[in-house]
Amino acid sequence: LAQDTFEKLLNLTQTSSGATAVEVLPDGSYAVFGPYIQNYYSDSTLVGQQNSLMMINLSSSGEVNWNSTVTDPDKEYFPNNRESFRLTSDDHLICSCSVADNGNNNGGDFFLTKFDLSGSVVWSHRLETDDFESADSCVETSDGNYAFIGVKGLVNSFKRDAYIVKLDAEGALLWGRTGGLAGSNEEGRTLFALPNDHLLASTQVVYEGTEGARYLLVEKRGKSGYVYETHTHHEENGYAGGSMRQTFDGNFVYSYQKDTVPPTSSPYGHSFLFKRDPAGVLLWELGFYSPANKFIANWKELSDSTYVVVGVHYNTPGSVAYGWIAQVSQDGQLLWEKDD
What we know:
Elements: E1 15-17, E2 21-24, E3 30-42, E4 45-58, E5 64-70, E6 75-79, E7 85-87, E8 93-101, E9 109-115, E10 121-127, E11 132-140, E12 146-153, E13 160-167, E14 173-179, E15 184-194, E16 198-207, E17 214-221, E18 227-233, E19 238-240, E20 245-246, E21 252-258, E22 270-276, E23 282-288, E24 293-301, E25 307-314, E26 321-328, E27 334-339
Antiparallel strand pairs: 1-3, 2-3, 3-4, 4-5, 6-8, 7-8, 8-9, 9-10, 11-12, 12-13, 13-14, 15-16, 16-17, 17-18, 19-21, 20-21, 21-22, 22-23, 24-25, 25-26, 26-27
């Protein structure tokens, strides 16, 4: 466990790049996706020119097979996270990000793209509105179409709502829906496909008048995108709504930063891992305690249905952050953990 089969440094001349997502392709190679900042020299100074989209294909041994970019001299592209890049059932790749015109300080729009496995664009769709939008996550629905979730906000305002759109297999818009609760702001995080073309949406809700208190809103939406079932979790002060993912057994695991248990042992709080069924029933929870802080950055389910959890660990408040990794059993028991 945790041993590399290869390590690859992608050193692109006069560019700055970073991988936000990796997908394993049917031939065993890897599609690496992320932002690509093209640079140029001005009076011997290296200057960042623009944000583009980058995809690189690595062989199973880590050799570069090809690379592809989506770039426009008048636009900036911003991919966000792991859930914004997915392999589809017809062996293509879909991605969600935000795009903005250069010089536009009022935010961006949803930008949704489908690639073939050689990195060529099959179609792309920019959803232009007068508001600010940023796409976070995408998923293939049970009917073979695509849904995307993110944030839709008013320009020059802190008001924002979760925003979900659905496109058909050819990239045409089928519908768009916003979600909102009175007295709060919402940020759409992740989407999951349910049977009968339904969706399960995970949203982070921010209370107005609080210092970053957030809770998790989980909604089931029907074929036309309307909500028919809602669950809320962790409505006390804390930070919920991190990466929520579906497990092999059809349930859901997510992380939560809680600052009240135990009440005095940590000024930063403690990270928890929770598992719930699709109806919202708690199956187990596991807390990671330390004198200062353990913060979950990501997790992944392994083939044996255990979970590897990674994050950062502070030995003392305000100290240097160290890498931290743990393995958790299928029923929520800590198997081992290690600080680096």
